[in-house]
Structures are given as C-alpha cells and as structure tokens.
Write the structure tokens for this entry.
Amino acid sequence: MLHKLGRNDMCWCDSGKKYKQCHEGFDEKLLAADRQGHMIPSHDMIKTPEQLERMRESSKINVAVLDYVGKNIRAGMSTEEIDRLVHEKTTQMGGIAAPLNYDGYPKSVCVSINEVVCHGIPSEDIILKEGDIVNVDVSTIYNGYFSDSSRMYLIGEVSEEKKRLVEVAKECVYLGLEQVKPWGFLGDVAQAINDHAQANGYSVVREIGGHAIGLEFHEDPWVSYVIPKNTGMMMAPGMVFTIEPMINMGKADIYIDETDDWTVYTKDNQPSAQWEIMVLVTETGYEVMAD
C-alpha cells in the first residue's frame, strides 16, 4: 500500500521537489487503481532518473557483448567457448557477468540449444552443430547496476520449422512490447504474446517468466506471459522489467535436469526459442534499454 505525503513535503523519489510538484498525481492514479482491486507497484519499484542512467550504461555493455557473440558464434565451437567470449568481453568493458555464482550458477552466461528452454550451462562437451538454434542470455553488472537481454542465433542451415519458431518468438516479444503503456497492465503484454504464439501453433512456458531489474538481478514483480489482459500489476512510469517469453514448438510442459538443478528442457523434446529485452515504462510508452 502506498502512503501519500503532505503536498509540501519533499517527494519520495529524491528529486528534491515538493510532492505536489512531482509524484502526487502519480500516486493518486496508483491509489485509484488499488481501490479498484488492481495490483500496483510500490515506490521502490520505480527507478529514479539517476538510476536509469546507470542502468543504460550497464545495458550498453550487455548489448555489445551480444553483438560480439553474434560475430563469433559458429558450428564446431563449444558452449564453453561462448562463456569465455562473454566473460572476456564483459570484463574488458569494465563490467561483471551477473550469472557467475548467482545462486550457485557456475558460469558467466546461459547457452540454451534446441530443446533446452533456458539456463543451459556452458561446457567443453557441448558443441554447436549445423542446424542448431541457440539462445545466449547475457546479464551484466556495471557500477552496481544490472542489465539483461538475450538473442537467438541460427547455426548454419536451419530447418524451416526451427527458423519459423525463432521468428515467431521474436514477434511475440515485440507484440508484447507494443502493449507497454503507463497505467496499463502486465497482463496486456502477456495476452498479446500468448495469442500470437497460439495462433502459430506454439505454446508459452508457464512456470518461468520475466522480472524487474536494476538494483538487483531479479526484482519484483515477476512477469507472467500466460495471464489475461487487464490483470497483473499496473505498469507505471519508472518501472523496468524484462519481456522474455519462452515459446515451445510443442507443449508448454518443462522439466529441470536433476543432475545440475539448472538446465530446463521441454518435456516433449521439441525445440524452444526465446528472445529477451529489457524495457522501461515511460510517461508516453516505453524505452527498450537492452535487446
């Protein structure tokens, strides 16, 4: 629950302005939505202009690392080589690879091939082959601020079925992005994604979604892609979260590898594809911070 300040108090956002000149109207919109039974963000989910600028700096590194991977990824290389590329480029640019040692994760990046939905652990024993589709999920810390995005890469000649899956997964992300508007709901994003996936004969993973980000790697709210329009948390200017639906060629069911407690697979062994972008809700719509 939000607690309004006195109109002449200093605003909670540290802008140095009086509340009535800053976030009073903002809070009134949120409180009105709260009274209607909607879920609303707390003040600590709203990033300040200074925090956003630091996050943009982190995002530049994240995007540059993915560009670097795209220039070097090829058939015959191990996923461990991709891990080295990510670690070296991130470090060279002054960043820290956020996944390394996060909750015990042993590598600097997640590399997920074909039926691996997400969290694939790089290994010298896993070799990229002609026809593979590969998700490389990069996350960066720079001066204490986090960024996160991922891309799909096609290795050599890929089947039309896999190529279409990758294309539709990307379309899902950007159709979801079109629904990012201040005072809309996260469910608006989810429905656009789910509708497009299903219209193309695909399914959306239910258990794993997006997340807010910035001061921590994973912040609230968690972002589902299977909830209906006009539900979920209200989007307010200053919120930053990821749009990263996992689109399966077959059924939505997944399982986690019991040997490493990280790698997520499709239960029916069908391919999965995922793109991830990091998005800021603005006063007029959105800003893509990392893609």
